[in-house]
Write a structure and sequence with these properties.
12% of the residues lie in helices and 52% in strands. The protein is built from two helices and eleven strands, in the order ααβββββββββββ. Strands 1, 2, 3, 4, 7 and 9 form a six-stranded antiparallel beta sheet that branches. Strands 5, 6, 8, 10 and 11 form a five-stranded antiparallel beta sheet that branches.
Length: 170
C-alpha cells in the first residue's frame, strides 16, 4: 500500500514541527484525546507530540554507542481530503533502534472510524488513517511501540499522541 502524495507532504511537515518542541500532556496520560476547547500541554494546534529517551546502562556504554536515543511520536490532522478524512502519524528516533511499531487511528464522534494505518521500521515509521467523510467531530490517535537496542533502558516504551477535536463538514 502506498501513501498518497498529500499524506507524504503532511507527514514531512509533522517531522519538521516535531523537532521544534516535545510535549506529553495530561490528556495523553489519562488515555483520552484533548478537545479543541481544552488544548493544553500535549498539543500544538492540531498536532500532538510525545517523547521517550533511552539511555545506555553502565555496562553497555562504549565509545561508538550514542549517549542517549530520543524517540518521538506525533499525530496530525484530521483534515478532509477529497471524500476522506485523514489523520497522520509519525514515529522516529535519533538513532537506529530495535524496532518502531506505529498504529494510527481515526475517530468520528468518539467512535473508531475507517481504516487504521500501520507501519514498522528500525528508526522511523509513518502512516495515515482514513475514513469516508461524513459530517462530524473527528480526532486522531497515534500509538507507538519503541524497542530499545540491547543495553539501553527502558527496554521498551509505549507512547500515545492525540490530535485535537475538529468539526468537519463534508
Amino acid at each position: 500500500m502506498s501513501i498518497p502524495r498529500g499524506i507524504v507532504t503532511l507527514v514531512s511537515v509533522v517531522a519538521v514541527a516535531v523537532t521544534v518542541a516535545s510535549f506529553t500532556g495530561p490528556a495523553a496520560a489519562a488515555g483520552r484525546h484533548p478537545s479543541a476547547s481544552a488544548a493544553g500541554p500535549g498539543t500544538i494546534g492540531a498536532e500532538a507530540v510525545a517523547e521517550v529517551v533511552f539511555t545506555p546502562m553502565a555496562s553497555a556504554r562504549t565509545v561508538l554507542a550514542p549517549r542517549v536515543i530520543t524517540c518521538r511520536l506525533a499525530a496530525d490532522g484530521p483534515i478532509a481530503q477529497g471524500v476522506d478524512v485523514v489523520v497522520s502519524g509519525l514515529a522516529y528516533c535519533s538513532y537506529t533502534i530495535s524496532g518502531v511499531d506505529l498504529t494510527v487511528e481515526l475517530y468520528r464522534n468518539d467512535n473508531l472510524w475507517g481504516m487504521p494505518g500501520f507501519d514498522y521500521g528500525r528508526s522511523a515509521a509513518a502512516a495515515p488513517a482514513m475514513g469516508f467523510c461524513i459530517d462530524g467531530a473527528y480526532h486522531g490517535k497515534a500509538i507507538g511501540y519503541f524497542t530499545a537496542p540491547i543495553g539501553y533502558e527502558p527496554p521498551t516504551a509505549k507512547l500515545e499522541a492525540f490530535t485535537g477535536r475538529t468539526n468537519i463538514e463534508c
